[in-house]
Specification:
Elements lengths: L1 E2 L5 H11 L7 E5 L3 E5 L3 E5 L5 H16 L14 E3 L2 E7 L4 E3 L2 H11 L18 H6 L6 H19 L8 E3 L8 E4 L2 E4 L6 E3 L2 H12 L6 H11 L9 H20 L6 H11 L15
Helix pairs in contact: 3-7, 5-8, 6-8, 8-9
């Protein structure tokens, strides 16, 4: 269980009343940027951030589409959802069986199933690698002003490059945040989770999430990455657009840490280190970024 913020039990109670569930024996699973609660009867409640209604609707629609296509993915419960409670979107899910965190092999196994699916007639946006980055930079109040200004400039530079990105593999439905933390490893096999960033765009964006763990953070070994590329059938680091997408992913990882460091002093050193890495003040890649949350 991860507790990183104050639980919003009032939102949980209100949401359960709207959806017809009893919150009396609710247990927190993860209380962080989003809140995850467990109810008796194998029900999981996910309370998202304010302002994320559209993303919550998309998560449920994508989950149901994946179920229709027999994709190994977390299942949305057959209730009318999302509901709004205390100004926050709330969704309800079937609890996963006993599981651990996924592996690099699990990630590529699921991407090989996801990417070939025909794009559905759903309100999916085009992929935006920079969603919420500007807001995160504004929230990085623990960083020096010069670093914040540099992050804004880097964001603008990458956005311009994104509009002129080179051609790659055909667009498809992409998960948007395809890494081992969004894959559950069960006895029956891997299961895909968290469709908050699902969209239509270049499949390379899903591949970059693993590639940067080799080239940027060094948390994936050469052998693991070689297996990943062999299983998928391509090495995204050899694509001419790789530096652009890797830069976007690095910026997301850095601003995520810096945003939360503004309210959690124990993460300020890590956030500053990530900025120092991007600005050329630290050792050469791969760096040694530590996870937060």
């Amino acid at each position: 269980m991860t507790i990183s913020a104050v639980p919003d039990r009032a939102a949980l109670v209100e949401a359960c009343a709207l959806a017809g569930f009893d919150p009396a024996r609710a247990e927190p699973v993860r209380i962080a940027e989003n809140e995850i609660w467990r109810l008796p009867g194998e029900v999981i409640v996910r309370i998202a951030r304010p302002g994320q209604w559209k993303a919550a609707v998309r998560e449920v629609l994508v989950a149901r589409w994946l179920a229709d296509n027999a994709m190994p993915a977390v299942r949305a419960l057959p209730v009318e959802q999302p509901v709004e409670a205390a100004g926050r979107p709330v969704t309800f899910w079937v609890e996963l069986p006993p599981h651990g965190i996924g592996t690099v092999r699990d990630v590529v196994t699921l991407l090989k199933l996801l990417h070939p699916l025909p794009v559905p007639d759903l309100p999916l946006d085009r992929l935006d690698p920079f969603v919420r980055v500007a807001e995160r930079i504004e929230a990085t109040t623990s960083l020096p002003e010069d670093d914040r200004r540099w992050l804004h400039n880097r964001h603008a530079q990458l956005r311009k490059q994104w509009e002129q990105r080179p051609a790659g593999l055909p667009d498809c439905v992409v998960h948007g945040d395809a890494w081992v933390g969004n894959v559950a490893r069960t006895a029956a096999g891997p299961i895909l989770m968290d469709f908050e960033r699902a969209s239509v765009g270049p499949p390379e964006w899903d591949l970059v999430s693993t590639a940067v763990k080799l080239t940027t953070t060094g948390t994936v070994t050469e052998a693991e990455y070689a297996e990943f590329c062999e299983a998928y059938g391509t090495d995204v680091t050899e694509w001419e657009g790789y530096e652009l997408l890797a830069g976007a992913r690095e910026l997301r990882m850095t601003t995520y840490a810096a945003q939360h460091a503004a309210t959690r002093p124990e993460w300020q050193a890590e956030a500053q280190y990530r900025v120092d890495c991007l600005r050329g003040r630290a050792e050469a890649r791969p760096w040694h970024w530590k996870g937060i949350m």
